Amino acid sequence: VPDNSGDGPSDEDKAKIRNEMKNWIDAIVGRYKGDVSAWDVVNEPMADGSSGLRTSRNSGGSPSDIFFWSDFLGRDYALHAFQYAEAADPNALLFINEYNLESNPAKLDSLLAYVKELKDKGAKIDGIGTQMHIHDPKQYGPIRDMFEKLAATGLQIKISELDVKASPAGLSALNPINAEFQAAMYGYVIKTYLEVVPKAQQYGITIWGIDDPSSWLNTADRQFFPLLWDGDFNRKAAYHAVYEAMSKR
Known about the structure:
Number of helices: 7
Radius of gyration: 20 Å
Order of helices and strands: HEHHEHEEHEHEH
Structural class: alpha/beta
Number of strands: 6
Helix content: 25-40%
Largest sheet: 6 strands, parallel
Distance between the termini: 48 Å
């Protein structure tokens, strides 16, 4: 945990922490050099409730058991990460990845400003991943605006973790009305991505799971049915909406 009572970590401690980061990146990226073509180098760097980087003080988590590079290395922690990753595999594409960009315009703007800051300092950033864990299938929000802003960077844009809750509160069973709302949202997201992001910048789309029961969103008492197949691997309305949207690219 960082020492917030005085000047914080010493230069020696910062050097040790940077070295640990470098060793980790060298080991992982170096091990798969030539086999893995792209890396998510920096994940979820921005704070939700305020502009700026996530730290132990604004993350909403417990500082006693969560490590934040920014607590120790400040704003340049991501710069170091991208530099180490580029050195480990100069040919790999390097991404920064974030969530809630489609529902939080201030967070999106903060991320874009941070990407520009890092690139101005020499970071090799090839693309931005937008996770798109959509909580309400009826709330379209500034999805198109998000894609327009992301595309304006000229970087590769990836939908990196897409899923859509059939209902924000959860359901005991998936009913046809919720299934259709969900399918419409899936179709809109993919259709808008393909329309707004220039083809040369379309890195790809990842659906965050396969069948509903295996989703990370489910809890012991709430089911969200967020994926394209049901528990018996039947294709849902969402599957057909994705298929239709992709077939028109």
